[in-house]
Each structure stands twice: as structure tokens, then as C-alpha cells.
Amino acid sequence: MDLFAADIYASFVTMEKKISIKWPENRKFAACLSHDVDVPFKYNLVGLLKEVKQNPKNSLSPFYNFITRENPYWQFENIMEIEKSYGFKSTFFFCAKRRHIKDPYYHIKNNKIQNIIKKLDREGFEIGLHGSYLSYNNKKYLEEEKKILESILKKKVIGNRQHFLNFNQKTPKILEELGFIYDSSFGSTKKVGFKNNKYYPFYYGKLLEIPLNAMDAVLFNQSKSYEKAWQKIKKLIDDAEKKSTLITFNWHQRVFYEPEFRGWGKLYIQILDYIKRKNAYVNTLGNIAKLFENGRRVGYNK
Ligand SMILES: [Zn+2]
What we know:
The protein is built from 11 helices and 10 strands. By secondary structure, the protein is α/β, with parallel strands linked by helices. It has a single domain, classed as Glycoside hydrolase/deacetylase (TIM Barrel). Strands 1, 2, 3, 4, 5, 6, 7, 8, 9 and 10 form a 10-stranded mixed β-sheet that branches. Strand 6 (about 200-205) and strand 7 form a beta hairpin. Helix 1 (about 1-15) crosses helix 11. The radius of gyration is 19 Å and the shape is globular. Zinc ion binds near residues 36, 38, 130 and 163.
């Protein structure tokens, strides 16, 4: 295992221009599935008022749902079942503290949230930190958020993705100092693909950056139809295979609520189906990062 990891790292650092990564089990390429958790409850008070405002004629059912506590955005178990049926595990990024108007509304200490975090972890899914809106530039914030999440999880959190992908030159240094081994905020909120033609994970100091290649809303905003969205994503997967690299997806858990996000969940399943058929190596971002980390520690390149 170590030798293989060293292999990855060696080919990775020494052949910048012509990288060939050896993925486990002789797979040609790899894929990471991830879910940023922004809105786990559709019917909190704010969401309810918004919906009533948008659609005053149909305001009874959201009220009913609010009172009966029905929550169509609670798709965690559904996602776990879908992914498990393919033999895949994914990473869920949770926000640990609300500090800014753009931060998610849920409270990490909410019992339902704590329980689902523990359940995901027990079942082998990874929990990462979804750094709050202002934390990219503030070590104290990120440190506090990491600690809160770890106190629930009772283990170290090694990965981060920033909410809104906020990032500057200070962010990787902060993350590294706090003991994160990877980040996955390098991506675009406008276009799917390999941003700046960076086809492979790369390092900021000791921090591994795993680029984010495709986000649900970005893909659907960019595509005029389901079929066009599928063609775009299929081409990306084919590119990842050709370059023997890693492709990373982010599908927010709420978009599996079909009546509101028509076809988004279906397309996700189509992706899983396709990468399964193509025999991609699929693992959590944390486990992929550990492969690179082991290689770096073995010091293959000395
Ligand atoms: Zn977010």
C-alpha cells in the first residue's frame, strides 16, 4: 500500500508535465463524490416565509409541512442507499457555525444533525468541514469550526471545502496549520470542468488540493436541457479517464428532492452508473488524500 502511494506521489511530483497516476486495483481513473450540506431543513421559519411570499396562493402546504415537521430536503439516507447500491462512499461537508448572512441556517448541535453526522461516519462515509463564509481568511474561525465538528464526531476532521468556495492566498496556510490534510475548494461557481486546466490534485505546501470539477447547480445553469447536461458531464468523465486523473462531484443533498429539482438526482444516478461501468476507483476525498499523504511521508522522491 505504501509503495503504491509512494508511486502516486513520485509520478505526481516528478513529472509535472506528463503525470501518470497509478490508481489502486489498476483502475484507469478515480472519482470522488461529495455533498455540501447547506440547507438540510426546507421548512425552517425563514424557508417557510420565503415560500409563502413566492407562492401566496399555495401557502397551506408549506405551513402544514412545517407543523408536521415533514422535511423533503432530508435526503441523507436516500443518498446513502443510492451510493451503497453501487459500492461507493462519499464525503459530506457540514458547516459548524453560522457567522454571516450567507452561512447555512442550521445549527450543528441540532440533535437530528448530530445524529446524521454520526450515522454517516459509522457507515463509512466521510465528514468534512464546510468552512463558513468568512473563515477562509480567519484562522480563529476555522479552528473553532473544526473543533466543534470534531467534538461531535469524536475524531479528527482532515478535509475542508469552503462555503461559496471562498479562498485566498492565506487559506491554504491556515488549513495546513490547523492540521487539515486536504482542501477541495478549487473549483468554479460558473463553469464545470478542470479549472485553469489543472487536471490533477496539487499541493499548497503540505496541503493537498483536490479540485472540484462539477457542481449540480452550475451544471444545470450552464445547460439548456437534461440531455445537454448529461453530455457535458459525460465528456468530463471521459476526459478524466483519458488523463488517468481524478474527477470530483458536488451534489447538494437537497437537490435529491425531485419535485423542486427536476432531474438533478436522476442525473447523479446516471453519473454513478457511468463511472461504475467505466470501472473508476471511487473513494471518499479523505481516503484519496491519505493515499497521497502516505506517499509523501514515505519520501519516495528523496
Ligand atoms: Zn455551501
